[in-house]
Fold:
Amino acid sequence: METRIVIMGPPGSGKGTVARIISKVYCIPHITTGDMLREAVAEGTERGEVARDYMERGALVPDQVVNSIVEERLTGLDLNDGFILDGFPRNLRQAEALDRILREKGTGLTHVLNLVVDDGTIISRLSLRRSCPRCGAVYHLRNNPPEVDEICDECGAKLVQRSDDREEIVRHRLQVYDEETRPLLERSQEAGLVREMRGDLPIDEIPEIVRRVLARS
Ligand code: AP5
Structure:
């Protein structure tokens, strides 16, 4: 099956968790703008310096910064082998940029996987999320805890809480999602690409459910 996927859903809906599973199951790269931007901030690059303030406020980083990061990342790949994009595009201008990049490479998306979760679940989830600053693995202290308290199972680094997971920032991120990103779904629905999936399924059932959802015509 061809797998050139964009995963969408509000902040905390489980995009990173599901995308990592899909990346492993289908052996395709997981390209996540949130992680790439956090890396740029941590390294203190010029783009990172621009992104920092927007990210701390839960606002979208300017399109030209994000578009150029994604374009560089996609340039190094054979897109026909598949990929999963997580966190991009997030508004209509980014969607147009993605369309252009894919068109120039003679390819296009096969699926838009949309995760559906209610806001109450999201707010309580994000307060207990811990992430690995080294490899990007994501945990939940109750639903998906690491084997050793506060330590990443995959690389052994000490887990951290993201500064944008404070409740007032999460509420702002949800508002930005409603205003900027939700309209994209309507556009993808018109193109017949959207497959909906619940974002609160038991984590060990996700691989099988993803297979079924992506196979749906
Ligand atoms: P980004 O890092 O992309 O954040 P987000 O979209 O807000 O999404 P999250 O990473 O918070 O959540 P998620 O949906 O991946 O859920 P997760 O799997 O972690 O972006 C951060 C910031 O960067 C933005 O605010 C913006 O400033 C900037 N940015 C990024 N991309 C941009 C772009 N394109 N344009 C402009 N700016 C951009 O899961 C959440 C928690 O729930 C975890 O603890 C997890 O373990 C748990 N969980 C997940 N699934 C389940 C489940 N099924 N059952 C139980 N628990 C679960």
